[in-house]
Amino acid sequence: MKTYPIQEKEKIEQILKSEQICYVGFADEEGIPYVLPMNYGYENGFIYLHSGPEGKAIQILDINPNVCITFCTQPKLIWQHPDVACSYRMQSESVVCNGKVIFEENFEEKVKILNIIMRQYSDKDFKYSVPAINNVKIWKVDIDTISAKEYGVRHPNSAMYKDRESF
């Protein structure tokens, strides 16, 4: 089973627009990594995130705004032979983005971005209170680099594992 790069922009955007969670990686001033699972929104080359106004991530980003954001589609267990352990693989696709966080402070822009984030999860229109907008930290990440891969590409003779009782 092989790993292949995904080159098609449409395929990469489809992954970014369909997933529910991303993982945001930071490095603090001592170079110690810190990774958070986060809800997000994606639109026109930007990843939008939100958080409380304070905390460890905000402290790190105030010093080092560089982030690495990863996405992974739901993996599927596949194999080439049901009795050969090393023929089992997880089949999935992933996207890795690098960029810098800019905190959005403009009230109207924050509302717009919250709507982008909510569209990732719902078609419903939302209203926000003034205190909610004033107390949320909006992260705007302009993607500098992006790469994507498809993992566990099946051999034509492989099968998808469906019945746990069979092995």
Protein described:
The structure is a single chain. With 167 residues, the protein is of the alpha+beta class. 22% of the residues lie in helices and 43% in strands. The chain contains 4 helices and 10 strands, in the order E-H-E-E-E-E-H-E-E-E-H-H-E-E. Strands 1, 2, 3, 4, 5, 6, 7, 8, 9 and 10 form a 10-stranded antiparallel β-sheet that branches. Strand 4 and strand 5 form a beta hairpin. It is globular, with a radius of gyration of 19 Å. The two termini are 20 Å apart. The C terminus is likely disordered.
Features:
disordered C terminus; 167 residues; alpha+beta
Outline:
The chain has 167 residues and is α+β, with helices and mostly antiparallel strands.
Beta-strand portion reads 35-45%
* CATH architecture group name: Roll
Low-confidence stretches: 161-167
Structural class: alpha+beta
Instruction: Supply the number of helical segments.
Output: 4
Overall number of domains? 1
Radius of gyration: 19 Å
Shape: globular
State the name of the first-level CATH class.
Mainly Beta
What is the CATH H-level superfamily? Electron Transport, Fmn-binding Protein, Chain A
**Percent helix:** 10-25%
- Counting DSSP E segments of at least 2 residues, the number of strands comes to 10
Average residue pLDDT: 90
Q: Say what the CATH topology is.
A: Pnp Oxidase, Chain A
Gap from first CA to last CA: 20 Å
Report the sheet with the most strands, covering strand number, pairing sense and barrel closure.
10 strands, antiparallel
Order of helices and strands: EHEEEEHEEEHHEE
